[in-house]
Write a structure and sequence with these properties.
mainly alpha, about 85% helix
């Protein structure tokens, strides 16, 4: 078992590295997507459309990637996804240079497809680690986003200044940085992710048969999602993502309307992404030691608090604190939900069910991103935040009821 544990550590480290590089690329672009959307379309209520297209493409692609991962393995699937992301970044860069909104949306589609592949990487870490270490393994991959949260937003300004003489617009710089980071991440995965996590996951499942749910035959997704534990896991991730996207996507434009410079916007978005990723090591260990449900409860309660706090003031410090809490609440829902879902699946069910889960997450967040622009234009930032808080209450209630029942009938890893 010692050899399998060593391989699991190596695989988790490689997945952490690619998550760090890829998230920096995605966050660099996400910092400016709503601003680019408004400038290229000419309408503030279309500001959320690029992110919505990006997320919707990722949602539908997630289910496809589940089959791709089964067919060609996790290593080849991740590498292919990152290369698609590099192409998408190049298209977005070109679109800004020629001032074309439709072409920019094409780039967003490709980047969304790439993000879906990258997000499934967290489950590759879960399947190669022992059951009692799943939360920690997922969090060790997700925490790679901390690197991206530092690098991504802060490269937007300097990169824009460097590239403006060539592209004609400072907003293009972030997308060129994304392209470079995706190419490097693809190289790291293709060279370093050996052996393939798919094969190691099968060996781990054989050594820990008591951790596998079901009879060994693959159940349908509907059967799995009808289980209370799986339902709580997916709803927590779906609504946690949607709430986070509703507030985060439009905050850049909200600050721009209050005459904040790109540097101020970058600080707030960086605080948000630090909240999203930096505390993953804590949320993962809490999920293993304290319980999946308890972590989801803390996460959804934090989301409610963050949404209310975002309405206090448009100044940098209050928004920075609110967006930090928004990211932290998302992290607890995401890590807790991902770990809880992984507990419910056999090796034959993993990629496809997890792909379906990410499809639902992406679809909900796409609706949130698209809705944020229209709600912001019609009702304002504060009303949008209050609506988001109402959605965050749903997983709080569901996880609380489910956890109380499980405390009365305790079962390991559920």
């Amino acid at each position: 078992m010692k050899n399998l544990e060593s391989i699991a550590r190596k695989i988790t480290t490689i997945l952490f590295a690619q998550q760090s590089l890829a998230s920096a690329g995605f966050i660099a672009a996400a910092t400016l997507n709503s601003i680019v959307g408004k400038e290229l379309s000419g309408h503030s209520d279309w500001a959320g459309v690029p992110s919505a297209v990006y997320l919707l493409a990722g949602a539908f692609a997630a289910f496809m990637w589940g089959y791709v991962y089964d067919a060609i393995g996790r290593r080849n699937g991740l590498s292919a996804g990152l290369i698609i992301g590099a192409v998408g970044s190049g298209v977005a860069f070109y679109a800004i240079a020629i001032h074309s909104f439709p072409v920019f949306l094409g780039g967003m589609i490709l980047m969304g497809i790439a993000n879906a592949a990258v997000q499934l990487g967290r489950f590759a870490a879960a399947e190669v680690n022992r059951p009692e270490h799943r939360g920690r393994a997922i969090s060790n991959v997700v925490i790679g986003g901390t690197v991206g949260s530092v690098i991504g937003p802060f490269v937007a300004g300097p990169a824009g200044a460097l590239i403006k003489p060539f592209a004609g617009d400072e907003l293009a710089g972030a997308y060129l940085v994304s392209l470079i980071l995706f190419v490097v991440a693809a190289g790291v995965v293709f060279i370093g992710l050996r052996p393939d996590p798919r094969e190691i996951g099968k060996e781990v499942a054989e050594k820990f048969p008591e951790a596998v749910t079901g009879s060994g035959e693959a159940r349908s997704a509907l059967v799995i999602l009808r289980q209370p534990a799986a339902m709580v896991a997916v709803i927590s991730m779906v609504l946690g993502q949607m709430v986070m996207v509703l507030v985060m996507v439009i905050t850049s434009l909200h600050m721009r309307d209050h005459n904040h410079m790109l540097g101020d916007i970058s600080i707030v978005i960086s605080a948000h992404t630090v909240g999203m990723y930096a505390f993953s090591i804590i949320s993962g260990r809490l999920a293993d030691r304290w319980g999946r449900g308890q972590v989801i409860i803390v996460g959804s309660a934090t989301l409610v608090l963050a949404c209310v706090a975002a309405t206090i003031s448009p100044d940098v410090l209050p928004l920075g604190v609110a967006l930090f809490l928004l990211g932290l609440g998302w992290n607890f829902c995401y890590v807790g939900g991902s770990t809880l879902l992984a507990d419910q699946l056999s090796p034959l069910e993993r990629s496809r069910t997890q792909g379906l889960s990410d499809l639902l997450i992406g679809f909900a967040s796409a609706i949130g991103s698209l809705g944020s622009g229209f709600i912001f234009a019609a009702l304002g930032y504060n009303m949008m935040a209050f609506i988001s808080a109402a959605f965050a209450v749903i997983p709080l209630i569901l996880a609380s009821f489910w956890t109380l029942k499980r405390m009365q009938r305790p079962q390991a890893f559920s």
